[in-house]
Amino acid sequence: MTPSTDSRNTSAKEWVVEDVAAGTFRIDRTTLIDEAVFEREMASVFGRCWLYVGHESEIPKPGDFKARDVGNRPLIFWHGHDGAKRVLYNSCRHRGALVCRIPEGNARGMSCFYHAWTYNSTGALNGVPGDEGYGEHFDRAAMGLLSPPKVDNYRGFYFVCFDPGAVGLKTYLAGAADYIDLVADQADDLEVVPGAHEYSMDANWKLFVENSLDGYHLLPLHKTYFTYLEEREGNTLDRDDTTEALDLGNGHAVICVHGPWARPVARWTPALGEHNRPQVEAKYQELVERYGSERAQMIGLTDRNLLVFPNLIINDIMGVVIRTITPTAAGHTKIHQWSLATAGEDPDLRARRLDSYIAFQGPAGLATPDDLEACEACQAGLRTAPDVTWSDISRGMHREHAGQPSMASDELQMRAFWRRWQSLLD
Amino acid sequence: MIPTGLTSATIGHATPSDAVRVRDTTVISAVCQFLYDEAALLDEWRLDEWLSLFHPDAVYLIPTPEDLSNDPATTLHLVHDSMNTLAGRVDRLKSKHAHAESPRSRTRRHITNVRVWQSPDGLETRSVFQVTRVRGGVVDRYVGVYEHLLVSTTDSDVPWLIKRRRVALDHSIESAGGQLSVLL
Ligand code: FES
Ligand SMILES: [Fe+2]
């Protein structure tokens, strides 16, 4: 849909409308299809929030780098030879070319292929062919690769923020920090497994954020996956499971469930193999000794989908999945995801962890293609927005406003996202 | 779509090591017919017949395009199926609840540049493929190399069973269809 002047100026309060007395929470569907809204959110949401770049384990050695696209900016996540891990803009200071044109590698320096300006692994400019062509005012020291205004990490998860006036990362994370802790406390050392899933959909990014936190859709949409789990792995979903949904502040939210699948840390099921049972159970005991049984249950036995607003999902389910959801247009979204695992874990357990992840998730999993199909079907249906204006996100509002706990199949977590989205857009 | 402009420095190697090239045109021609027949079963959605072409210990692999050389036990793959899980994948695809394939895609497999080697494990074949997938009026293309390890069989209608089938894509799924709900 082409930008309408109207949606450049509309207050987002007119799009995200909550009426507690009437028990309604409605989203104007314009927010999902209008290019002017997309442009506004690229500036107001992606231009102002902390965005995930990568995990420290992805660049363990000096020189290691990953090229990443974050908030529609090409970046280099680079472990400098001075020992510091940096995030640099991947754009030559001369005339703008990508300095790094491969997804990953190890380099002491990088030479821009256009006119051969050369940068070292700290980003400093250390070579300019034909120096004599520049006068005394050319300040080479100031011409290194630039960094985004804010770069920080929380427990090894690196983020950037393109707004120099933003709050610090820890403050930004609010209640989400505790849930990152639950992942980080799984093991002394975690590592991203080599390889990434890169996929996309013709639908608005916010639909996939909602989907990633949507406990309501599991049974109806993923019937084939649960059949597969039952028939191929012998695991059955507990329909009376106690679940939870929490608003973690600043737009962050989490849902907690107890799924039928195996967790390498630390819930054994036959899918992990009888021979791995003692070590998975021992791992759980270790968590109990270290953190007490209540926290051990949260770390080891509870499955969580965490949203770090706006576009980072950490699924701690049959293994830990780090997922970023990046819009390229109102109706197109790229999704990248990685597997985070216990460093140095038993090779057989690692193999089974990866197998159970890819059976469920990823572009060729038994569940994710149906999620994408659902989002794309929504996007196609949303073309009726001029006439069918509102989406409904009211599920569980009566519980929320009576001060009762929310369940994963409620929509509290989506309301938390949308309230924050609205406040940033205005 | 905004391209990232990045190209992986790794190119998948399509030539098996530790194998002797087969030049006998009768064998090569029979292998070609086997591959075409297999492709037709997939294109016609005769998935149970397709499954019957596999050896009970077979593996079906699709690595991610950046990590073509790696092992499913240590590297994130798109697909790593044993016969148990491949049969589960087929069961799902046959269900009307496989929403991403309901209604089903139409696929056409174009297979070319077929080469054959004799290895200690059986016949190793490499072929170049392009799979077109048509759904909802959109044509997507998947491009890469098929690797088949074929082992002789006597108790079957076919001369060989597939012991290993690996699909090495030249591109990420991001730029081809967005997802991979069909079998490649
Ligand atoms: S653009 Fe990089 S050296 Fe000219
Ligand atoms: Fe889902």
Q: Briefly, what is this?
A:
The complex is a heterodimer of chains A (426) and B (184). Chain A is built from 13 helices and 21 strands.
Architecture overview:
With 426 residues, chain A is α+β, with helices and mostly antiparallel strands. Chain A has two domains: 51-165, Rieske [2Fe-2S] iron-sulphur domain (Rieske Iron-sulfur Protein, 3-layer Sandwich); 175-425, Alpha-Beta Complex (Naphthalene 1,2-dioxygenase Alpha Subunit, Chain A, domain 1). Chain A contains 13 helices and 21 strands. Chain A has helices spanning 5-9, 30-33, 35-46, 169-173, 176-184, 205-212, 218-221, 223-233, 277-300, 347-360, 368-381, 397-401, 412-425, and strands spanning 16-19, 24-28, 50-55, 64-70, 73-79, 85-89, 104-106, 109-111, 118-120, 125-127, 150-154, 157-161, 190-192, 197-201, 244-249, 252-257, 303-308, 312-317, 319-329, 332-342, 390-392. In chain A, strands 13, 14, 15, 16, 17, 18, 19 and 20 form an eight-stranded antiparallel beta sheet that branches. The mean pLDDT of chain A is 95. The chains are: A alpha+beta (426), B alpha+beta (184). The complex binds FE2/S2 (inorganic) cluster and fe (ii) ion. FE2/S2 (inorganic) cluster binds next to loops of chain A.
Q: What is the topology?
A:
The complex is a heterodimer of chains A (about 425) and B (about 180).
Chain A: H1 5-9, E1 16-19, E2 24-28, H2 30-33, H3 35-46, E3 50-55, E4 64-70, E5 73-79, E6 85-89, E7 104-106, E8 109-111, E9 118-120, E10 125-127, E11 150-154, E12 157-161, H4 169-173, H5 176-184, E13 190-192, E14 197-201, H6 205-212, H7 218-221, H8 223-233, E15 244-249, E16 252-257, H9 277-300, E17 303-308, E18 312-317, E19 319-329, E20 332-342, H10 347-360, H11 368-381, E21 390-392, H12 397-401, H13 412-425
Antiparallel strand pairs in A: 1-2, 2-21, 3-12, 4-5, 4-7, 5-6, 8-9, 9-10, 11-12, 13-20, 14-20, 15-16, 16-17, 17-18, 18-19, 19-20
Chain B: E1 20-21, H1 25-43, H2 47-51, E2 54-63, E3 77-81, H3 83-94, E4 106-119, E5 122-135, E6 138-152, E7 160-169
Parallel strand pairs in B: 2-7
Antiparallel strand pairs in B: 1-4, 2-3, 4-5, 5-6, 6-7
Bound molecules: FE2/S2 (inorganic) cluster and fe (ii) ion (FE2).
